Amino acid sequence: MQVDVQFGEFLATLSGDPDQHRAVERQLVEVISDRAELSAQVATGRGDVAELEALSSYAYLRSQLAPLLDRDSLQLLDQQQGAIAERNLRLNYGQQLTRTAPDLSDANRELVLDILVPAMLFRAENADSRNQLSPEQVVNQQLMSLRDAREALQSRLSGVQLEQVNQFFNQIRSNLFLNQSM
């Protein structure tokens, strides 16, 4: 299931060669299973956090798939990898926004997501510096990004629309503080 959600679009591009498709799918299942197993071990104190970070990285996944893919397929995988995070974040925030701000117009919902999602994403250009931050520092950066997105929307929305968006942002902020306290 997780393979289909995360990599279904990519796997569909390999439909020309059923053997390659199956081999790539098997490798994806193996990597995801290994991550889940090691994550459970880390949660119980029997696994190494650094090893889990390495196993969970895109670089590791790419290295496991590279022998099975040609250059064009690897480039497509690279392109889709960045889009997956953005799509998932947009979907999650969109669902949360719909629940929190049910009266928000479709145009304003898209405006909020268009501003918030890029602000909250870990981009390739800042991934290395974020990897060196403590969890508390990452949450602080996310809080600053959230504040910047809120400020960008203050002059573009008004009335009930702005009130509902502020409730949505307050909910995200509360969740970030909750994560920080764990």
Which tags fit this structure?
single chain; 182 residues; mainly alpha; 9 helices; 82% helix; 0% strand
> Main beta sheet, described?
none
Strand content: under 5%
Compute the gyration radius: what is it?
19 Å
Tell how many strands the DSSP assignment holds. Answer: 0
What share of residues is helical?
A: over 70%
Q: Please mark out the parts with pLDDT under 50 across 5 or more consecutive residues, or reply none.
A: 124-128
- Name the average pLDDT: 85
Q: What is the helix/strand order? A: HHHHHHHHH
Secondary-structure content class: mainly alpha
| Distinct helical segment count | 9
Distance between the termini: 29 Å
Q: Label the overall shape.
A: globular
Description:
The protein has nine helices and no strands. It has 182 residues and is mostly helical. The two termini are 29 Å apart.
Give the helix/strand layout.
Blueprint: H1 2-12, H2 18-43, H3 49-56, H4 58-65, H5 71-100, H6 106-120, H7 124-131, H8 135-154, H9 159-181
Helix pairs in contact: 1-2, 2-3, 5-6, 6-8, 8-9
Q: Quick summary of this structure?
A:
The protein is an all-alpha fold and 182 residues long. The chain is 82% helix and 0% strand.
